[in-house]
Specification:
The chain has 10 helices and 16 strands. It folds into 3 domains: 135 residues, Ribonuclease Z/Hydroxyacylglutathione hydrolase-like (Metallo-beta-lactamase, Chain A), CATH 3.60.15; 41 residues, no CATH class; 90 residues, 4-Layer Sandwich (Metallo-beta-lactamase, Chain A), CATH 3.60.15.10. It is globular and about 75 Å long. It has a 7-stranded mixed beta sheet with strand order 6-7-8-13-14-15-16, covered by helices on one side. The longest helix is centred in the first third of the chain and has 12 residues. Helices cover 26% and strands 25% of the residues.
C-alpha cells in the first residue's frame, strides 16, 4: 500500500502522508476517523497524497464536526481547495490548509503536549520529513506517601509542580520525597522520500524511533542516486550516526520480492533495525 502513518501521542492522533487506500487501512486498523486532528504531507507525489480528498469526503459523510488541519507544501493548497469545491461542496466541517517551507527547520504545529517540526529532505521535488517531540510531563506522585501522610487530593497538582507538604505536627516532606521523576519525553522522526544526506543525523540526534525510507538495497545504489532515494544501508548509517533508539525501514521498491534483504543490509550497520509493515503498531 502507498505511504501513510498515524502517530498517536497522549490520546491525540495525527496522520503523516495519505496515499491511495489510506481510509481502507484506517478501517482495517480500527482507527477512529474523528480522532485524527491533522494531516502532514511530506511531498506532492501521488503515493503520498492521492488518498487525501477521498478521506476528507468520507469524514464528511460520517458527520465529522471538528476541524481538520492539513500541513503540506504550497503546491497542494490550490489543488486541495479545488477538489473540495468539486467533490465536497457541502462539507460539514472545516479543512484548514497550512503551507510549509520544506527547506527550513521550523515548528509547524504545537499544543500543550506536542511539538511538530519540519526536517528538510532532498528528493525530486520539495520534500520534508517531520519530527514529533513530546513535551515534558510532570513528575509521578508517590501514592504510598500520599496515603501515608493523608495528603488531600486537591494538593496533588501542587506537589507535582514542585511543592512539598507539612504535616499537622510540623514535619516537612520535600517535593523529591513525594514524587518520582517524570518519564523522558519521546521523539519520533519520519523521513520520507530522500536521497542519502550525510548531515541529516544532526537533526535526528537521540530520537527514540526513526522511520527512514529504504527504497533500494545497495545492489541498486545507482538507481537510488538517480531517483533521489536511499538504500537500507544508507538509512542505517543515518540511524547509527544519530544514535537513535530504533530504525524502521519502509517504502520498498517492488523489484524486491523478499523484504528481508532490506533488514539484513541495515542490521549489518545498525542492529536495532526493523521492517515497517501494513497495519502494525510500534510503541516508544
Amino acid at each position: 500500500m502507498p505511504s501513510s502513518q498515524v502517530v498517536e501521542v497522549r490520546g491525540k492522533q495525527f496522520m503523516v502522508d495519505c496515499g491511495e487506500g489510506t481510509q481502507l487501512q484506517l478501517r482495517r486498523s480500527r482507527i477512529n476517523f474523528n480522532k485524527i486532528q491533522a494531516v502532514f504531507i511530506s511531498h506532492i507525489h501521488g503515493d503520498h497524497c492521492l488518498g487525501l480528498i477521498g478521506m476528507i469526503s468520507t469524514f464528511g459523510l460520517q458527520g465529522r464536526k471538528s476541524p481538520l488541519h492539513v500541513y503540506a507544501p504550497a503546491a497542494l493548497g490550490p489543488m486541495l481547495h479545488a477538489q473540495i469545491e468539486l467533490f465536497c461542496p457541502h462539507l460539514c466541517y472545516e479543512v484548514t490548509f497550512h503551507e510549509i517551507d520544506t527547506e527550513q527547520v521550523a515548528v509547524i504545529y504545537e499544543d500543550r503536549s506536542l511539538q511538530v517540526s519540519t526536517i528538510p529532505l532532498e528528493h525530486r521535488l520539495p520534500t520534508c520529513g517531520f519530527l514529533f517531540r513530546e513535551k515534558p510531563t510532570l513528575p509521578h506522585i508517590r501514592r504510598d506517601m500520599i496515603d501515608y501522610l493523608e495528603i488531600p487530593t486537591w494538593q496533588i497538582n501542587n506537589i507535582k509542580n514542585g511543592a512539598g507538604w507539612t504535616t499537622a505536627e510540623g514535619k516537612t516532606y520535600s517535593h523529591e520525597e513525594l514524587t518520582t521523576p517524570a518519564d523522558a519525553p519521546r521523539q519520533y522522526a519520519y523521513c520520507s522520500d530522500t536521497r542519502y544526506i550525510p548531515t541529516l543525523h544532526q537533526l535526528l540526534e537521540g530520537v527514540d524511533l526513526l522511520y527512514h525510507e529504504s527504497t533500494y538495497c545497495n545492489d541498486n545504489l545507482q538507481l537510488a542516486e538517480t531517483y533521489y532515494h536511499s538504500t537500507a544501508a544508507q538509512a542505517a548509517m543515518v540511524a547509527s550516526d544519530a544514535h537513535v533508539g530504533k530504525l524502521l525501514l519502509g517504502h520498498y521498491s517492488s523489484r524486491y520480492l523478499d523484504e528481508t534483504a532490506f533488514l539484513n543490509e541495515a542490521r549489518e550497520i545498525f542492529p536495532e533495525s526493523y521492517l515497517a509493515n501494513e497495519n502494525m503498531g510500534y510503541g516508544v
